[in-house]
């Protein structure tokens, strides 16, 4: 995308995460996300992203100093927030979608952050995947699970998904890859609302949060 297109097709949206308490020392982080006015995947913030970012925000103490990979990051709201919360984050999107990798970089740039961005295509074992450090957490909003957790057996995959069909289930995949999954109720991290982080997302979309991890890390 050239500069001309950039200036005409990009709108910056702001998401503010803050403590609910009303004291003087209220903690607040605002993340600016440049969205490309294009209906393709990975060009704007999906409803799931703001819900996952809210989970990151509420659990930010667990992320401090930890290694985190965001997969299918698109405009990277959860990963960039995790960076601001003190995690060592790598952002990734499909190696075959350079415009999505550009979006990851653009969000970092707008937030004045230097975060590694790598092309990782689900299901492909590449040098970029193998070069990742051992991971504590993997973030993915509105993506399907891919078993790269194998190289980091204790990693947790924090993921949100949008309910689009009652027929879709990942149960067979969980069984196949020896994974377990915990559903996280939205109310437990104050995400049971149509408006998060001062935005109009997630709106009326049905978004669910779950944590996936290896059932028995030693049994590979
Ligand atoms: C529905 S969008 C969600 C984007 C972002 N996580 C969010 O919630 O705003 C799905 C993302 O997955 C990425 N993606 C799709 N297929 C992929 C693949 N095979 N490997 C890696 N990333 C992929 C897309 O480029 C896109 O950024």
TrEMBL record:
Keyword annotations from UniProtKB, A to Z: Methyltransferase, S-adenosyl-L-methionine, Transferase
Gene3D superfamilies per the UniProt record, alphabetical: Vaccinia Virus protein VP39
Matches recorded under SUPFAM superfamilies: S-adenosyl-L-methionine-dependent methyltransferases (SSF53335)
Superkingdom as given in the UniProt entry: Eukaryota
Example GO BP: methylation
Keyword S-adenosyl-L-methionine attached: yes
GO cellular component, one term: cytoplasm
GO molecular-function term, one example from the UniProt record: methyltransferase activity
InterPro entries noted in UniProt: Methyltransf_16, SAM-dependent_MTases_sf
Family designation: Belongs to the methyltransferase superfamily. METTL23 family.
Protein name as annotated: Methyltransferase-like protein 23
Organism: Conger conger (Conger eel)
